[in-house]
Specification:
The protein is an alpha/beta fold. The chain contains ten helices and ten strands. The structure holds iron/sulfur cluster.
Length: about 290
């Protein structure tokens, strides 16, 4: 990752590890999800065009061969479409070998733009969106202050897909605690199946110190964290219940996960289920807790 004058903390999805990152916005325009500690120290703002332009100028001279660019921070797509198009056009002009531009997006960002606007952004080179679903259960979506319902998530993801975007979605194992574990997974599998994102990442909840009290307060009833066996039960139930309408590349290989699992759905479902079931018999194979982080 090239070092620009970044405003830290800086995040990008694991699959953007080799991408050039331009921070076109700072922080997250929502910044209220109770489990998320990413941008709590930042106030949302949009960087001036002149600063973005001069960074593109510098980086394109040093790395003209760049193939992938990620636009940070938490929801660059929140930018006014006109400004985003100005950035996309300038990036395309200056990186002739570019294959992909991506950014994070939340359902509300996508529903605030019309299908035509989204199609235009996609035609201008914004190819891929990383979207946090977290859970498909409406009660839990409220408890974690996601600012979305299962319906708005499905509508937003389908709108993005129909507009030509590749979408990569995230869900969080354990986010319902023990009490809502089954509801969380069955509803999440329903939403995931409806949306059938191109990529799906299942992370595992680790509540960081910075948001622990807020998470518990907003949950508004006792929250029992899941042990590894129940996390594996959730993963098993999730895989059983996802019935995609188009293929999904599935991964549970995030730093927070108990074990690295991956495959394509539906064809690798049985293989992944066999692995999850064997891990339940062999907990000694799971990643040590000290090595896990959210
Ligand atoms: S999870 Fe995403 S939308 Fe929610 S506060 Fe964090 S960055 Fe913002």
């Amino acid at each position: 990752m090239i070092e620009l004058g970044y405003d830290y903390p800086l995040y990008r999805p694991p699959s953007e590890a080799n991408s050039i990152i331009f921070q076109v916005t700072l922080g997250c325009s929502f910044n209220k999800c109770s489990f998320c500690n990413m941008y709590r120290t930042k106030e949302y703002s949009e960087r001036p065009w002149e600063e973005i332009k001069s960074e593109i100028d510098v980086v394109s001279k040093s790395f003209p061969q760049t193939e992938r660019i990620f636009l940070a921070d938490g929801d660059a797509i929140n930018l006014d479409s006109e400004k985003l198009i100005q950035i996309l056009d300038y990036i395309k002009e200056n990186f002739p070998n570019l294959k992909r531009i991506s950014c994070y997006a939340m359902p509300k960002n996508l529903l605030q733009k019309s299908p035509d606007e989204l199609k235009l952004l996609n035609s201008k080179g914004l190819d891929m969106l990383y979207i946090g679903i977290e859970t498909g259960n409406d009660l839990l979506l409220k408890k974690i202050t996601k600012g979305a319902t299962s319906k708005s998530i499905i509508d937003a993801c389908n709108r993005a897909k129909k507009s030509g975007f590749i979408i990569s979605c995230m869900i969080i194992l354990g986010i319902g605690g023990k009490k809502y574990s089954k509801d969380h997974i069955t509803e999440t599998a329903r939403v995931v199946s409806d949306v059938s994102p191109n990529f799906l990442a299942a992370l595992t909840l680790i509540i960081e110190d910075g948001v622990y009290d807020e998470f518990m307060k907003k949950f508004n009833e006792p929250f029992e964290t899941l042990d590894d066996t129940i996390i594996l039960d959730e993963l098993e139930l999730l895989l059983i219940n996802i019935n995609p309408i188009s293929p999904i590349v599935f991964r549970a290989n995030h730093a927070s996960n108990v074990y690295s699992i991956g495959g394509n759905l539906p064809e690798d479902k049985e293989k992944m289920l066999a692995l999850v079931r064997s891990l339940k018999e062999h907990p000694e194979l799971l990643k040590p807790k000290v090595l896990r982080r959210f």
